[in-house]
Amino acid sequence: MNRHDYRADRNGEASLQYLDADFRVLKPGSYVVCAVTGQRIPLDKLRYWSVDRQEAYASPEAVLERYKTLPRV
């Protein structure tokens, strides 16, 4: 990867591993996409995600919408 490729990646979608209280950047980028709304979430604004489902959410309302769709156990 050269310097220009890296800069392009930093402005695109990041790939993350969601952990219990943090996340690990697997592929650099400036945002992730909400699994419910499709909205771009800047990494510095990312507050909600699911470790089990490995997906990000834009808001508490998006989290609630996702959990409404999960099968009941």
Essential attributes:
73 residues, alpha+beta, two-stranded antiparallel sheet, DUF2093 domain-containing protein
Notes on the protein architecture:
It is a single chain. This protein has 73 residues and is an alpha+beta fold. Helix content is 25%, strand content 29%. The protein contains 2 helices and 6 strands. It has helices at residues 3-10, 60-69; strands spanning 15-18, 23-27, 31-33, 40-42, 48-50, 55-57. It has a two-stranded antiparallel ribbon with strand order 1-2. A hairpin with a 6-residue loop joins strand 3 (31-33) and strand 4. The longest helix has 10 residues, at 60-69. 12% of the residues are buried.
Task: Describe the structure concisely for a colleague.
InterPro entries: DUF2093. This protein has 73 residues and is an alpha+beta fold.
Give a topology summary.
Blueprint: H1 3-10, E1 15-18, E2 23-27, E3 31-33, E4 40-42, E5 48-50, E6 55-57, H2 60-69
Protein name: DUF2093 domain-containing protein
InterPro entries: DUF2093 (IPR018661)
Pfam families: DUF2093 (PF09866)
- What is the distance, rounded to the nearest whole angstrom, between the alpha carbons of the first and last residues? 46 Å
* Number of DSSP helical runs: 2
The Rg value, from CA coordinates, equals 14 Å
Helix content, binned percent: 10-25%
Strand coverage percent:
25-35%
User: Largest beta sheet, briefly?
Assistant: 2 strands, antiparallel
Mean pLDDT: 89
As residue ranges, the low-confidence spans are 1-8
The count of domains is: 1
Shape: globular
* Helix-strand topology string: HEEEEEEH
Read across the widest sheet, the strand sequence of neighbours is 1-2
Q: Structural class of the secondary elements?
A: alpha+beta
Number of strands: 6
InterPro entries: DUF2093
Protein name: DUF2093 domain-containing protein
Pfam family, one: DUF2093
